[in-house]
Every structure is written in C-alpha cells, then in structure tokens.
Amino acid sequence: MVVVLNGVLADECPTSVRALLAAHPGYRDAAAQLLSAAPRVVGAPGLLYVGQRELAAVVPHDKTVSIIGSDDATSCIIVVLRHSGSGAVALAHLDGAGTAEAAAAMAARVQQLAAGYPEGRLELQLVGGFTDPHRFSDDLFANLMLSFHRLSVEIDLTLACACELNTSLSPGGAAAPLVTGVGVDLRAGDLFPATFPDKGPDLPLRSARYITGGPHATQVLDIYDNNVSMLRIGPFNYDPLRGVDLWLQQSDDFILQHLSTTPNVQPPHFVHNIRTTLKFIQQHPFPAVTVFPDNRPHYYRRDEHSGGWTLVRY
Q1: Second label for 86, Cα 20 to 30 Å away, from 100, 191, 238, 261?
Q2: Name one Pfam family in it (predicted).
Q3: Contact between 73 and 180 (Cβ < 8 Å)
Q4: pLDDT by residue (tens digit) across 101-127?
Q5: CB neighbours of 253 closer than 8 A, spacing ≥ 6?
Q6: What are residue 82's phi and psi, to 5 degrees?
Q7: Is the pLDDT of residue 219 over 90?
C-alpha cells in the first residue's frame, strides 16, 4: 500500500531495480553517492554487528552502541530502516528467508523506539546484492519491496544501491558486488560503506543456525535488547548436520563451491569461517541441550576496557 518513491505514494510497487529506475532515475544518483564514499574499517568499540538472518534496532542515545552495521553481503541485501525524527534505526542482513516477517518486525521495532516523537518519517535504504548468475539478489529485492509495500505504514525508499546498481563487470564479463557492507552512524544518521573485522561473540553458533535446518533456521532473529543495552543471542535449536565429518575433510575449494551461492566473489575469510562453524556443529549437534540447556539467551554487556562484548553470568 504505502512505499513512497521520491515523495510520492506508489500505487504499484516496482519489484526490480530496472523498473524503479525507469520511473525514478534519481535513485541512480543516490546509489552513486554511496559508491563514491571511501569505505571505513570499523573496530569493536561502540559497534553492534548484525549477522546473516539477524536484525537489531537501536537509538542514538544508547550508551553502548554508536555504529550498527553488517558486511559480507554478496547475494544478500542489508536493509536499514530509520526514523528521521528520533534517529531510531533497525538493520537486518537478509538472504531470502523470513523476509516478510523481518520487514514487519523492523517497522514495529523502529516505531516502538520512536514513540513520543511527533515529527519524522520512516526511511528505507537497501544496500547489497548484485547481478549474480542465479539472480538471487533480484528475487530478494522484489520480495523486500513487496514486503515493505504491504505494511500499513508509509515508508520512504531513499536508497536502493542493490542488484544492477551495485554490480561491477570485469573485462571478461564476470559480475561482482561493489559494496558488501555498510554501517550507520547513529548520532549523525549517516550510512557509509564499511567492513567489520570484529563480528561479535558466538559467531560460529550464529552462523550454524543458517547453514543447518530446523524451525529456527529460517527465522530472522532480533539480537539486541534495548531495555538493558545488551547483545542477546538465542535461545534456538537447529537440526543435526548429516555428514559434517565428511564436510570437514573436503578441500577449501570444495567447501567454497558447494557452501556458497556466490563462490567467485566471497571474501578471503569465507572458508575459514565455514570450517569454524562446521566444527562447532560437530561439537554441538543439539544446541538446545549443550548451548542453551536452560533455554535462556546468552547476554553480552559492553566491556569498557576492550570495547567488545563480555558474557554476562547469571
């Protein structure tokens, strides 16, 4: 009903970047501005990192978070929803699973955090994905646009640096994404290209959820508790991964080719992270028993000295 394009309510929602540009060519300039910005390497202090199939929402006056961001999005798309009046931001890293539910959850979280601010609008920014051989990103872009369009609130699309607008072509015609990570400066409200060497705690556990199966595997999990300003992981379960021992015996190239949707454009650390995740799954085939035995989340508080996250013991 209510995606707003260039200040005008859209009766019909464009479901491709090409259709969007045909009606509103100004989005090309907005994407070019992001692409021309120098990428930043963001360290752990003040960072709230959001992984694949995760979302988080935060406000500018949060005492422990100054930047929220995500990276390593090749065929995935990073979604940012911001309330211009309060500065409340929700960010998600989506791969096609749980898209509609994530869009609704992001809108609800931002509206909740923006309560009491009479002025302001919801602004949507989509970054990531490229013209990949299987068109995964194109399908995800379409689902994202439709998911936000179906919500009952007005949402202004201000940036769509995705798919063909985020694609570089080599002389041989091979496609690759131009921007694979972004951060949002909560105080300034600015979005910028970024990479994040420190991706926060429990990364093998968090990654295990989306490369296995089970009822929790396709959900997009909210990983931040605003009430206590703490990172929150779980609880969740996943199905045992059959043949995990055999996977760990394979070559790096075999893992890259068979466990990535876009093997030609993955970052150098991709295989290392996958191996670490597979080893975690091998050690914890039933996380509900060994990782979350009391069915309670893992809570992490910001460490004032290191700037990273420290597990809170109850």
Answers
A1: 100
A2: N_Asn_amidohyd
A3: yes
A4: 999 999 999 999 999 898 899 999 999
A5: none
A6: -130, 140
A7: yes
Question: Is there a contact between 286 and 238 (Cβ–Cβ < 8 Å)?
Answer: no
Omega within 30 of 0 (cis) for the link into 263: no
**Distance between CA atoms of residues 92 and 83, nearest Å:** 15
Phi, psi for residue 299 in degrees, rounded to 5? -105, 140
Alpha-carbon gap, residue 200 to 211, rounded angstroms: 19
> Cα(271)–Cα(155) distance, rounded to whole angstroms?
38
Per-domain residue ranges for the chain? Answer: 3-305
CA distance 241 to 172: 38
d(CA 236, CA 297): 9
Residue whose structure tokens are 């640096």: 161
**Cβ neighbours for 32, distance < 8 A, ≥ 6 positions apart:** none
Structure tokens at 74: 């090749």
Tokens coding 114: 């923006």
pLDDT above 70 as % of the chain: 99
